UniProtKB/TrEMBL annotation:
Top-level lineage group: Bacteria
PANTHER family membership: 3-HYDROXYACYL-[ACYL-CARRIER-PROTEIN] DEHYDRATASE
Matches recorded under Gene3D superfamilies: Hotdog Thioesterase
Gene: fabZ
Organism per entry: Sphingomonas dokdonensis
Protein name (record): 3-hydroxyacyl-[acyl-carrier-protein] dehydratase FabZ
Length: 158
């Protein structure tokens, strides 16, 4: 990271600030904290994976593993915080919607009791469509990686 980027870094953010950026709430809020956010560049966030997560009851009994789709969702939520903060959309009501997921690879099971580090960076940023690269890590070990695209839009009409 350059000195310019590190001086522009924001964080840490607690869950209250995360919830100000995202519409997700329990049980679908999968970002617990933001360690660092460099606007227009990247975010490092944390998901504390606990045995109390509802999905562990059935995935899998006797061998709890966080579903891969939820790891990707956690990366997407971290990207949502990055997009909202970078584009100045906090409080605007705009939503960040998945458009595509590419090249997802799962490298290591995510089990209860870990801090899942979510590292997401912009690959391309436009006013309405952004492309991201994301990695989920346990310590220094890669658990999952992917690229994905999201669209920023108004919420659906009630």
């Amino acid at each position: 990271m350059t000195d310019t980027a590190s001086s522009a870094a924001l964080g840490p953010f607690d869950v209250t600030r995360v919830m100000a950026a995202l519409p997700h709430r329990y049980p679908m809020l999968l970002v617990d904290r933001v360690e660092e956010l460099v606007p227009d560049v990247s975010i490092t966030a944390i998901k504390a994976v606990t045995i109390n997560e509802g999905f562990f009851q059935g995935h899998f009994p006797g061998r709890p593993i966080m579903p891969g789709v939820l790891i990707v969702e956690a990366l997407a939520q971290a990207a949502g915080v990055l997009a909202v903060e970078s584009l100045g959309l906090s409080g605007s009501g705009k939503l960040v919607y998945f458009m595509s997921i590419d090249g997802v690879k799962f490298r290591k099971p995510v089990e209860p009791g870990v801090l899942l580090r979510l590292e997401v960076s912009f690959v391309q940023k436009r006013a309405r469509v952004c492309k991201f690269a994301g990695r989920a890590l346990i310590g220094d070990e890669l658990a999952a990686e992917c690229e994905f695209t999201a669209m920023i839009a108004d919420p659906p009409a009630a």
